[in-house]
Amino acid sequence: MTQTVPDTRQIARKGQRVLDAIQGRFEEKDYGKFVAVDVDSGEYFLGETAIDATREARAKHPGKLFFLGRIGCRTAYTFKGRR
Q1: What is the pLDDT of residues 19-56, one digit of tens each?
Q2: Are 47 and 54 in contact (CB under 8 A)?
Q3: CA–CA separation, 54 vs 37, rounded Å?
Q4: Which of 1, 5, 55, 71 has a 20 to 30 Å separation from 27 between CA atoms?
Q5: Which residues contact 38 (CB under 8 A, 6 or more apart)?
Q6: What is the dihedral of CA 37, 18, 8, 60, to 10 degrees?
């Protein structure tokens, strides 16, 4: 049985488009919360942490990959190198 490798770049592009489209639905109190997006259906799941959002998403759609974003932020996480 062969297993297909998901195209993570395609998931990222679709997920960002969905997140951009739904940003206006959130309130000020949602700023900084994490959102897991099912890129196939456009369904999304909010959580205080990334784990909360993905747990809720996986409870409904086990085995799927999700785009992870953060409300009001360009990225879910940032990484800084040492100088």
Answers
A1: 989 888 888 899 999 999 999 999 999 999 999 999 99
A2: yes
A3: 9
A4: 55
A5: 44, 57, 61, 64, 66
A6: 20
In angstroms, the CA 13 to CA 57 distance is 19
Which H or E element spans position 46?
strand 44-47
Whole-number Å distance between alpha carbons of 35 and 37: 6
Q: Which of 50, 51, 47, 41 is nearest to 18 (CA)?
A: 41
Instruction: Name the residue with tokens 């297993």.
Output: 3
Structure tokens at 11: 């998931």
